[in-house]
Amino acid sequence: MTLRTRLTAAFLVVVLGPLLVVLAVVTTRLPDRLGQAEDRGLRDSGRLVAQLVESRCDRALAAAEIAALVASAPATAGQGPLPDRLAELVARGLADGFRIISPTGATAATAGAAPELPEADCASQDPTVAGEVVHVAAVVPLGRSGAARGDPQGAAVAAFTVDRGLAAQLAWGIADAEVALLVDGRSVAASATVPDALLERAAEPGPVEDRVVRAGGRTGVLVPAGPGRPVAVLVVADRSALTLLPLLPVFGIAAAALVLAVGIAVLVARATTRPLGELGAAAARVAGGDLHTTIEVRSRDELGLLAASFNTMTEELRRYVGALEDSRNELQAGVARIGDALAGTHDVDRIVHVVLDTAIAASRARAGAVWLVEPGLSTLQLAVSEGFAGGVLPAAELAVGAGVVGRVARSGEPLRGRPGVGDLLPAAGEPAADALLAVPLRSSSRLIGVLAVYDRADGQPFDEADLSTLRTFTSQATVAVDNVLLHEEARRLSVTDALTGLWNYRYFTMTVGKEIERATRFGRPLALLLLDLDHFKLVNDVYGHQRGDAVLVELAARVRGQVREVDTVARYGGEEFVVVLPETDAHGAALAAERIRSAVQRRPFGEPGDAPLDITVSVGAAVYPQHGSSATTLVGRADEALYAAKRGGRDTWRLAEVDRGA
Q: Which residues, in sequence order, are bridge partners of residue 101?
């Protein structure tokens, strides 16, 4: 089924469905609905009449209050007797009648149609009945008036007569309905004749709330008596007869509506599907890579807006694809630079420079810096920075955990925003900027450092796209940096003695040959010292190898303290050490050997709490070119001198003999 067919069918369902529902309602349910609406209206009328009866009780109560005031107040000059004053109240319409009862129960004064003192006034559920006459009456003790104080002095009665006139007044505001007032199921007053059958239904026991009663083709709403309403109210009306439309005209109208709906549906479906077909074809061309596809906008309705939105989407898509291509090119260029740098060097500084340059270009930042984590993970050292104006450079050292960069190093999570706003509080020495993006440089094994870029060139804050780009880039860059650091660490460990931290034998062999070549080229002397601890085997045998290792570590520290930065100190093997002294002749070698011997012998070895050990060292010295012109010869002559020092009593030094030659 095509979209046009579906739209036509949907339109017909939408149009004809409600029409059929309306026909069903008109022919079946409308009479009942109208009857229910009439019942609701009749109930409202009954409640309104009941409220009017209650208002009669309220008026009677107010009139009784006034009569009590009149009866309790002393007569003044010009006023007539009490009956005349009560008659004046009747004439003013305050009530149909008044009666003043003395404290003895006798009638003190009366005016109009007033009943005897009732057993209960209208505030109760019972009316006041005097023979065949029913009253809505209220009783007020004379002692309640403001003029009389103390004990009650009788009562004042105000009453309205329940008769046909009252019923007519109550029915006046209700159209096409009559009002009957009932006492104990019998009608005591009615605006018109009420069928006996309806009165009998109203007299049947029922709920205390208002209810609908029907009989003889008439409908009534009965509102029972209650406090403040001493008589029941029955509102009666004729039930309306609903004349339905003839079925034939209805079916004719329905058939005409069907034909019209089908025609409209076909036209609407055609007008709707044509632009959608064009949109589908254009979308297919875009999916095929033609991002310059556009659709003609023929209208300003929703379909026209859809066409305009499609054109806007393709334009944004072209712009976005262009930006992605630029970003990809920048990233590829950065990765290529890192690859070239990694292939051409194992220099950390060069690699970090390339990483920072690429990060600044990829995020369109104005400046940036890279801090590397120092061993121990307590401080960050500035490795490289670029783009900061005025020569103001970031701090060379930052504490891990302090400021924005320190927080990134501690948490391993990136941060972006404006420094100084919210929780982005920079530490002393961090660059001031309007926008910041800092990401950790983390390899699979450890945190290497933190890369931070500042202030985009377009003045906008860094967004999620910048963060995603930098994360993708740094995940590749950190591999290169980590490899260089690991290479340096491996190279350092390959030429370093693990116990003492001195250079090892391999490094010594590489260095001594270069130093001899340099000495030969410039015609300068070179000295070599070979050191050996005296009776070191006894230390291991008596105190154990751990104490022996501690002695070797302390010896290395003392020897380093007695030589220059340009001198090379290496562990030759076991308890033997070698020192290469460039630019040093025989006299200088003798002085250096004595300094080392004295530094070892000067004080016992050991940490506080350890048994002090008196350690001495024997030193053999050989000098280039007097004692040899090669590394092997110099080492051999120095070793001979060392054994001469051992034979000479140890704790001394000896210089190789010149006459032995190389």
A: 107, 155
